[in-house]
Amino acid sequence: MTDSVDVQPWMITPQVTAVFDALEARGRRGCARFVGGCVRNTLLGAPIGDIDIATTLTPDLVTAALKAAGIRAVPTGIDHGTVTAVVDGVPFEVTTLRRDVSTDGRRAVVAFTQDWAQDAQRRDFTLNAVYADRDGTLSDPTGRGVADGKAGAIVFVGEARTRIEEDSLRILRFFRFLAWYGQGVPDAGALQACEDLAGSIGNLPAERTSRELLKLLSAPDPRLAVELMARAGVLGVLLPADRDRREFRALVGNDSGMPGLPDPVLRLAALLPQDREAVLQIMDRMRLSNAERHRLAEAAEVTPVIGPDMGMKAARECLYLQGATAFSDRVRLAWAASGEGGDPSPWRNLLDLAEGWVRPVLPVNGKDAEAAGVPRGPLVGKVLAEVEAWWMARDFGDGREAVLARLVAVIGDTGDTGDTP
């Protein structure tokens, strides 16, 4: 009996139909099939993201077929057989069937083939090696991809060790897929191979491993996957100075009551040392973006201390100085560090404050200081800083008139404003 799935709405959109019609006009019916995440997620009943297509047509024929149909063809990975078809702004990766010629753990040299089974043998996991025709008919060259997909079993195609030696990133992909789709007891052979070859991750470009880790941490509940990574020695290769994972587990547990999607950067912060300099050193190795580096460094600050007994006045001052993102991050990390089972209300109140509070603007500026007699230069900043500290201590309640009066008083206390102290 041939396995099949019901024709899904995403299989028959005008854009998908246009690509398949173009490819089959150049080849024959059945020369193109859906593959990868769209098929896997259909088996799992999960939402569909990108729609990838595999084909027996070589890249030059794919390009010609698309152009003949008036479809834009972008050679995004031509050496590896990938041409991106763009229809009405929607991209579809179309990749020629391949077999590996040589691999070195980081990259592969491939040759094109028309054999679906050969293409399946070079894929990472059985549930990613299932193909679907446009009518929903499934092709399962490994003989177990459909069953593994429905069961949420993350199993390497063939020998786990061989697949990892071809591309070490597959270690992280194993744990990422486990976090997102895994069900039941994880495959023991795969775990052992990941542990045996964990050190090979260090040979990969940092950008690849960091992105893969953040994808893993984006899963609804990555706690088991992260714990298994730690036991296998994989997490230690990525984060040589990781901290007690109880806080990470508590943070993920708290997420269940939080609005919005999981925050992978904050979850990463819960795995890093609570030391700004140590975090920056790890970030240098991980090659994260400047925005991510800044956020993680701010989250590692330990002063001022944030706790459930923090008053609203102190919280507003902290929020004013740190900004909403850094303040919220530190609240959620402190909440996780406080342990499970406590009253969440004080923490939620602080988070509500961060979400709803509009940061006030100091009602005076440098021009006001100069107009009051302060010469342009470093003294302006010194005077304004003192005025701002007074304004914050009074909980930002004073308006421009009162703050101007305080500015004049500070200038008077400074003495001769013509001399920079």
Look at the structure and give the mean pLDDT: 92
The strands making up the biggest β-sheet line up spatially as 3-4-5-2-1-8-9
Kindly state the percentage of residues in helix: 40-55%
**Class of the largest domain in CATH?**
Alpha Beta
Please provide the ordered H/E string of secondary-structure elements: HEHEHEEEEEHEEHHHHHHHHHHHHHHHHH
Keywords:
alpha+beta; Beta Polymerase, domain 2; Hydrophobic Seed Protein; 4 domains; two-stranded antiparallel sheet; disordered C terminus
Question: What does this entry look like structurally?
Answer:
The longest helix has 16 residues, at 378-393. This protein is elongated. It is an alpha+beta fold. The protein folds into four domains: 1-153, Beta Polymerase, domain 2, CATH 3.30.460; 159-238, Hydrophobic Seed Protein; 245-359, no CATH class; 366-414, no CATH class. Helix content is 50%, strand content 10%. Helix 1 crosses helix 3 and helix 7 (170-181) runs antiparallel to helix 10. The strands form two sheets. A seven-stranded mixed sheet has the order 3-4-5-2-1-8-9. A two-stranded antiparallel ribbon has the order 6-7. The chain has helices spanning 14-26, 37-44, 59-68, 116-121, 145-151, 160-166, 170-181, 188-196, 206-217, 223-231, 234-238, 245-255, 264-271, 276-286, 290-299, 312-322, 324-337, 345-356, 366-371, 378-393, 400-414; strands at residues 32-35, 52-55, 72-77, 82-87, 90-96, 98-103, 108-112, 131-132, 138-139.
